[in-house]
Amino acid sequence: MTTLIDIAAEQKSAEVTDWAARIGWVVGLLLFIAFVYWLMRQGWKWRGSLQSDLPELLASPAAPGEAKLELTGRYHGSTTAGQWLDRIVAHGLGTRSRVELTLTDAGLDVARPGATDFFIPTAQLREARLDKGIAGKVLAEGGLLVVTWAHGDKLIDSGFRADHAAEHTAWVESINSMINTTEGTAR
């Protein structure tokens, strides 16, 4: 008579995993993901080469003057003015980063730790406004400070988000006031 222990000892369990097939699928998936990232990088580089006619960004002047306003927050990117999805990647303008903005009589100083800093002279500022999106980043209505400026023969929109969004209105008023004052003295 066979006991329960003898029956259990005689039965073999089926193979649970086909390791060769599983490893093949994992390697294939990893190769596919790497290929997609490579294609994205190539697209970014291609966009940069298309925008190579954009002049180098200006550095901050040695003595920009007394700060009117200062802001810390996020730089969300730059686009061709009026085309919120046409990201500009040349000269590091497409790189999102932390930002420290300083507005002086000389212009707007954009300091970005870990990315290229740049300076926008007052004469190149065109407009400041509150908006809801830029270059794939969409926020609540009025949640983004967008500064339009001229660089070479191109108008650029740059999007910033302050750590304290209530600061945006003061920035819009100050920048637009500076632009109107500059235009008034130029006439």
Name the features:
187 residues; alpha+beta; 3 helices; two-stranded antiparallel sheet; seven-stranded antiparallel sheet; 9 strands; single chain; elongated
Number of strands: 9
Stretches with pLDDT under 50, minimum 5 residues:
none
- Could you state the order of secondary-structure elements as H and E? HHEEEEEEEEEH
Helical residue percent? 25-40%
Q: What is the general shape?
A: elongated
Report on this model:
The chain contains 3 helices and 9 strands, in the order ααβββββββββα. With 187 residues, it is an alpha+beta fold. The strands form 2 sheets. Strands 4-3-2-1-9-8-5 form a 7-stranded antiparallel sheet. A two-stranded antiparallel ribbon has the order 6-7. Strand 6 and strand 7 (137-138) form a beta hairpin. The longest helix has 32 residues, at 19-50. It starts with a helix and ends with a helix. The relative contact order is 0.15. The model has no long low-confidence stretch (mean pLDDT 86).
Describe what is shown at a glance.
The protein has 187 residues and is of the alpha+beta class.
